[in-house]
Amino acid sequence: MSGGPSLMDSIFQRSLEDLIKSFRLHLPGGEPTVISKALDEIRREIRSTDLTTKAAALQKLTYLHSLHHADMSWAAFHAVELSSSAFLPHKRAAYLAASLSFRPSTDVLLLLTNQLRKDLTSTNHIEVSLALECLSVICTPDLARDLTPDLFKMLGSSKNLVRKKAIATTLRVFSQYSDAVRVCFKKLVENLESGDVQTVSATVGVFCELALREPRAYLPLAPEFYRILVDSRNNWVLIKVLKVFAKLAALEPRLAKKVVEPICEHMRRSGAKSLVFECVRTILSSLSEYESAVKLAVAKVREFLVDDDQNLRYLGLQALSIVGLKHLWAVLENKEVVIRSLSDADPNIKLEALQLVMAMVSEDNVTEICRVLITYALKADPEFCNEILGFILSACSRNVYEIIIDFDRYVSLLGEISRIPHCQKGEEIENQLTDIGMRVEDVRPELVHVGRNLLIDPALLGNPFIHRILCGAAWVSGEYVQFSTNPIELMEALLQPRTNLLPPSIRAVYIQSAFKVLTFCLNVAFLPNEAAYSSSSCPINEYSASPSFAGHESFADCEQDKFLNLRVLSQSVKAPSVKYGGDTAVNHVKTSASLPLRNDILTQKSVDKMFTLVKTALAPLVGSHEVEIHERVCNILGLLELTQNEITGCFSREKRNFESEELKAYEIIKMMRDVFSEEIGPVAVSARDRVPIPEGLVLEENLHKLETICSDVQFPISSSFFLGRPHSGERDGVSFFNRPIIEVSESSNESTLLTEHRKRHGLYYLPSDKKEVVSCEYPPANDIKMQDDITDDAEDLVKLTEQSLVRKKKPSQAKPRPVVLKLDEGDEISVAAEKPESKDDMVSGAVQELLYGSDAIPPSTQINSSDKLSSKRSGKVSEVNENVGNVWKSERGTPSSRKSKHHSHGKEREHRSSEKNVEVREENGQSNKQKSGHRHGRHKARQRADGVTNVVSQTPVIPDFLL
Amino acid sequence: MGIRFILMVNKQGQTRLAQYFEYLTIDQRRALEGEIVRKCLARNEQQCSFVEHRNYKIVYRRYASLFFLVGVDNEENELAILEFIHLLVETMDRHFGNVCELDIMFHLEKAHFMLEEMVMNGCIVETSKSNILAPIQLMDKAS
After folding, report:
1. Prediction ipTM score
2. A870 and A752 within one domain
3. Interchain CB contact of B74 with A (< 8 Å)
4. CB of B126 less than 8 A from some CB of A
5. How far is CA B80 from CA A393, A794, B20, B54, B59, in A?
6. Which side of chain A, N or C, has fewer Cβ within a 10 Å radius?
7. pLDDT reported for residue A841
8. Chain B residues 24-63 with a CB less than 8 Å from chain A
9. Each residue's pLDDT tens digit, A51-71
10. Claim to verify: residue A654 and residue A528 sit in the same structural domain
């Protein structure tokens, strides 16, 4: 094994073909063995002095590297060595190995420089093209610097094959070494006028890539590109030129005006779909202000959309989404196709269509569009279903629910979305539920209603994707429990046995909500008059601040069993004040618009039942290992302990003495209720920044030690809730009690719903005496009743959508849009306007310098590039400038095809080569200063021009090439 | 650059040719190829030939058992790339005569050579079949 390669190795060497065959013969799973065996062989063979053996080994290694990802960095030197072989197949193998495996950091790269140079200057054009191909892949700044002069020579080669490849290589060389631009650029521009199609094609390709990075620098070349656009009949070239114009037209309106007609002409004339599509894309993205052109383009898009070829349909939709940004009518015109595409066989097409549908959403049609989309979501596969839902959620919540007017509807839509079988958007829905709850006061009753419907369904608990939604529902139900029509039922839902399927963090939220509900119920049951006015959404009534509890005696007397007759409320009659005096309790009747909470809900029985429920459900959890659960359970049970006796006691007695006995429990409950009644509002994202950092706190200190400590602690999801100060200043502890309760309208239905629900899920409810083993056989989660409503007929959907997408005149809103709480700051996500990084600053800087003259670097890059360039210039000037000088001389010889009105300036005619500079300078009123400079070599002129850079006004320099 | 990489993959998902026009490490290549193959091979005939992946747009076409996948940047014209793939296949067909997967397997170097004639640095530089094949035929004669 250790010895060098022997003669035997050479004779019995396996060829690449043998190796490939051995791959085909190996047993399944035996591939790694084959590879490692082959690599052993190769390592031995590659050291051979026989070039044929070496080449074969290198070929095998290249194969393994390229297709089986074997490492071959160790063989880099052998590739370099083999490249010097005079035998072409060896050379080819070596260069291929180099171009496939070398990386910028390969250390033997520099050893290749001489060989590359030798091959580049070879008379055999195949050797030259091999070297060029390799250079175009592996080029590094060093290689670029060393080989630029050779490349320059080849740009003028008489052999098309060589010239074309040299042109393609310049792109890579420019990006590695920007000074090469000064040497090669003029030559490159000349090739634009070549008669050879492939040369032009390659040159345009290079300019297209360059122009994509920094278009402004190439504006002066527009006349050449224009000529190609009009004259060329080669589609590859035209596509590239169109891409260049798409960039240039955006910068120069006069240019746009000039090219729009030829582009339309191509669009009408050409039979090549690729070219037509490029024209369409160019017009829609960069020339969208030319109405007739856009109309023509949209007509073409329509042809694409109805084509049988799915590729064209996809591109058509993409084109629509480009035009949709500025001309929504084009999308609306094609809406049937778009909607139909929602049920296409291709997920990519569906996604494009979905994006377009969402682009059509406005506040007038959001409800209808959502309805249509949900119908699609119900039929779609899970992945696309969630795409749809994601789009709905993000579109509706955009800009703090900008397009939502009817929040009640939106909230029930959220509830509906939650029940869609494939829905995996739990987190987003949870956030929106809580967020809307905090921001929109008016929607809270509906929110609680929706939350209740979700919580009460035990089947939903079986679906882990819905847990986050349930968490949100539990939170809103607890937080806004005063809007609940039936808190007892809510309590049962929160404590149902199947909640043990929830992750601990969410269960903790459930328990906390149960806590809130309990406090609320006790408050209501215990202190009816106080609690009766505990809603937050109605005008605050003024009550006498210190109600006398003595007054309750008689009240309690007469309402022994239905002393919870609390919701005799009205909205119409607003009692300005209440007097509790002597033996008469004045009940202020506030007739609610909706039905009152039924009297029998909070009877003694039900309170008793609730106590038992809480105890049975939570007592086993006292031993929970989850801190959050444990703590909350202890809290709630503690409250129970403190109050239960007194409360049940007070039920049992005929006459109760509030003053002496119940004061303690009363105080506790009132206090708890006070705590929970504190309004929770949204908190600005930036709020934390305003907290001053305490002195002596080192924030930079590394906390990595915490990781080891906390690695297995699961943090509660409390982060989704914001604890903040009440956002409206008018509230205070006292006024809380004075707020009337708002009833949810459907309470009459509630009872029937509840009984139905019980019938269906009765067995999952906790019997009050014994614990039940939770069975796993449940009705399927998300059982959708409306399954029959789903129409399969796409036509119907199209019709439906058509109606919905018609831009109606703004309907007179039945309800005004409720107030949506916005924070002054922080709601708008401040997208830091990042400047697009100009990657090829250097290249475009150098190009600009050549094309505009250095005084006329346009403002976009003026500041950064001019500094760099001037500092660079001092270093490398001499050699490069000589070359540049040559370039400019040779340029003078070639007749320029540019039409220019500047010929009238007598003096300048001699300096046609620097015409553009003159043009530019004239625009800036600098022509006089500059004219004298032309005779003394380019670099001097440039250096002089440098001096005036700062004087030049900041207006963009627009060469007058179009006139 | 327009074209970022060209892959040929058989329907079992084995790579038969891989040419990158930007530098990626072996691990990056392995991951990229795996992801793309999984994504594209799962698609059926009725679905379009364009897939977006990471920051690439993949344009692919299937010929018999072989998939031709071309990764391009977002500016590239998809239909032109489809035409390019077809041109590539036609060129190989002309050279090998009824080209199949095995031809590419056993003549990987030639396939690369053809590609290099057509694409340099991500730009398409030659679209004439006879021009593409001329140097290869010269080389064949030489060896």
Report:
1. 0.95
2. no
3. no
4. yes
5. 37, 33, 19, 21, 10
6. N
7. 64
8. 25-26, 29-30, 43-44, 46-52
9. 889 999 999 999 999 988 888
10. yes
